[in-house]
Automatic annotation (TrEMBL):
Family under the similarity heading: Belongs to the iron-sulfur cluster assembly SufBD family.
The name this protein goes by in its record: Fe-S cluster assembly protein SufD
Encoding gene per record: sufD
Coiled-coil residues: none
One record GO biological process: iron-sulfur cluster assembly
Any Pfam family hit: SUFBD_core
Domain SUF system FeS cluster assembly SufBD core: 129-356
Source superkingdom: Bacteria
């Protein structure tokens, strides 16, 4: 028998199913000890490069915000207590809890119920310098049956730790696009916790191109049956960069759907990318469908990609579940095909990389952003072509 919404809620209250790969969520700092680096959620992260974020030093600094808000959308403030009262899970790690404790309240982006926005919401967050320590707490609330696209753009430089809560109402449709286009010396860590309402449709795009170290953790659960979530990402790491993306999809309701698809390229000495995907299918989550995939393209020697997909299944009554991961160099067959038709090797390599990323970039549906991302990838490719020719 299919569980009702009330049964789902009661099951979650009475029986917490803990992921074997994620700690218990909590706002209490004491519940998240300072990591040693041996813990499962920290073993790939170079902790010494976090510039003392775990010390939790207070700071009054903020990123500067530039906003373009369609009619009806508001930007306001919440107290820390008001933000915590929202129906979204607490932080899964110490950095998330520190962001809440030190941000001094939350910024609220509010999209009203039934709104159909005529253009994307645009938020540009700009850092003043790598020596500036900034704590952030952001809440994005999308009302029932609203339709919206939200673009969050990180530029400049900072040492920035944030906790973002996203609440998507029943029947709503949200495209959330985050772009990490920092200067080369920035450190950015962020935890994004998203709750999808009943019969909602959510797509989250993550694009990470800049920064010295970028580590994001995207966690999803469901408020009721019928919710559909796609998590899509593109990242490009250059020499010395560490880019780490983690996703945890917690199927907390029946008849829900999730799809995770991230693509990365890396080049240069000590370029390091990390992708960790995990899907937890609870006993109550009957009839769900999920798949997660990560593909990495290693362009030069000296670069390293770690890719770890996981599935935790508590019920056998599911529509489908699977995962896949690939890491490799250029496909020789693709290059041979293009070169056999008179295309020079350098141009052939460029076309292969563009094709690799374009499958995700084209789905955004925001023309100027698609052009910006394509141009940024062109700039990265110009660097690798220079290395290959030298």
């Amino acid at each position: 028998m299919t569980a009702t919404v009330e049964n789902v809620a009661n099951a979650l209250e009475l029986e917490h199913v803990e992921s074997h790969l994620h700690p218990e969520p909590s706002y209490d700092l004491a519940a998240h000890p300072v990591p040693s680096g041996l813990e499962e959620i920290w073993r790939f992260t170079p902790l010494k490069r976090l510039r003392g974020l775990f010390d939790g030093a207070a700071s009054d600094a903020h990123l500067s915000w530039e906003n373009d808000l369609p009619e009806g959308v508001t930007l306001g403030e919440l107290s820390t207590e008001e933000a915590q009262a929202l129906a979204v899970s607490a932080p899964f790690d110490r950095l998330g809890a520190l962001a809440v404790a030190n941000a001094g309240g939350a910024v609220l982006l509010d999209i009203p119920a039934n709104a159909e926005l005529d253009r994307p919401v645009r938020l540009t967050m700009r850092g003043a310098g790598a020596d500036t320590l900034v704590w952030g707490h952001v809440v994005i609330r999308v009302g029932a049956h609203a339709k919206a696209t939200v673009l969050v753009d990180h530029v400049g430089s900072a040492t920035y730790d944030a906790f973002t809560q996203v609440v998507v109402g029943d029947g709503a449709k949200l495209d959330l696009v985050t772009l990490n286009d920092w200067e080369d010396d920035a450190v950015h860590t962020e935890q994004i916790n998203l709750r999808a309402g009943r019969d909602s449709e959510v797509r989250v795009f993550e694009f990470s191109l800049g920064g010295d170290l970028v580590r994001t953790s995207l966690n999803v659960d469901y408020a009721g049956p019928g919710g559909s979530v796609d998590l899509l990402g593109v990242y490009f790491a250059d020499a010395g960069q560490h880019i780490e993306h983690r996703q945890f999809v917690d199927h907390t309701a029946p008849k829900t759907r999730s799809n995770v698809e991230y693509k990365g390229a890396l080049q240069g000495q000590d370029a390091h990318t990390v992708w960790i995907g995990n899907v937890l299918i609870r006993k109550v989550a009957e009839g769900i469908e999920t798949f997660e995939q990560n593909d990495n393209l290693v362009l030069t020697d000296g670069a390293k990609a770690d890719s770890v997909p996981n599935l935790e299944i508590e019920t056998g009554d599911i529509a489908g579940a699977g995962h896949a991961s690939t890491t490799g160099r250029f496909d020789d067959q693709h290059l041979f095909y293009l070169q056999s038709r008179g295309i020079e090797e350098t141009e052939a390599r460029r076309l292969v990389v563009h094709g690799f990323f374009n499958d995700i970039i084209r789905r955004i549906g925001v023309e100027d952003l698609q052009e910006r991302l394509t141009s940024a990838i062109e700039d990265e490719l110009a660097t690798v072509v220079g290395r290959l020719e030298s």
